[in-house]
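ok so I'm stuck.
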Amino acid sequence: MGLFGNISKKIFSTTKIKKRDFDPEKMSVEDISIPFSIAKTENSLIKELLEHYITAYKSLGYKNKTAQELGNKKEYSSYEIGILLKYIKDNQVYSIPNKDKVLPDFILNSSKKQLHLKVFDLVHRYEIGVNKTLNMPELKMELKWTPLDIGYILYYINLSNRTV
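replied:
not stuck anymore, here's the structure
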């Protein structure tokens, strides 16, 4: 009975499978998934939108805000974040003119590794928090993202060498 008991325990035991831990450091552009309604957007339109987002970010005076102030209000939509993520996914680079007059110093002083971690943490949150079947108007209605999120993405888009 002892032998059979040990064998049955091994056969019928429920081994817990450990979930893969999320590690933004190991993520890359291939891990970015965006809604179909954004994926089909032309890069020329995305570049126009990006320029508009930069102008708006500057005019709203986010450069002089603290991380806490920028992270408190959800003012940006899943559509806007998706547009910026598509730009990254397509390996596009946009050099922000006078970026020191647009982005806060604490973002500009981030190391590439810190920036990568921030951006791919956001990619992960986008992956689990945004329904990829939503259409453009629905994505525009989802205000889930902060000026802090946008600031890190804008700076990341500005980098020509994104390797950590």
